[in-house]
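FAQ: What does the model actually see?

It sees only this:
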Amino acid sequence: MSRLHRPKAGFWIRFCVAVIYPLDALLFRIRFRHLERMVPPERGGVIIALNHLSQIDTLLMARLIWQTGRIPRFMIKAGVFDWPFAGSIMRGAAQIPVHRGTDDAAHSLRDAAAALERGEAVVIYPEGTTTKDPTNWPMQGKTGVARLLLLSPDTPVVPIGQWGPHKLGPSLKRLGRRRTAQAVVGEPLDLHRYRGREATPELLREITDVIMTAIRDLVAELRGETAPASFFVPKRTYVDRR
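And it is asked to produce this:
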């Protein structure tokens, strides 16, 4: 599939593309919708917010974002950067480490805001981990995405809903059976009304819920079902080692 735009990408990004494309094609039948809705590179930075179904869906979403003509800068849990080789790839590709639930998380948001100032596409999973909703709907998001928006209030937020990659499962018997993976890009959200507002807990929750609702509606479109009226709230808080 051709890209909608062709900004310059470094060695590590192109290395990732060379690995991800054939791997995604091996594992999934890919169905992407409305890639043209993505904010183009010439319009500057963009926050991309999406639901998280499985660990492997990051590979699919990296491919989707690349095909829209943007270079993805994922906000990824910091532990991945300590992995042999994978950590080198993450650093070389300028991904953004996140120490979930620690004081260092604020540094991650500043790094992300700086990337947005440079006109980059910052990708965030507001849920902070794969969904724990029993029926795999997007669960309640963490407020990091709202904090990032308030740090960069003129940046558009593009929601993406995805469905299907979690059905691959861990069984080796399923590796030869491709699963259908769907994703749809939503229209950029108009969140200018929050510009200049104080970051109170209530406001952060409101912004986060607006973004998560947009994502949930896209997932409902893919599933052909009515979304639940409220978000599942996980009992566990995820904290990364410093």
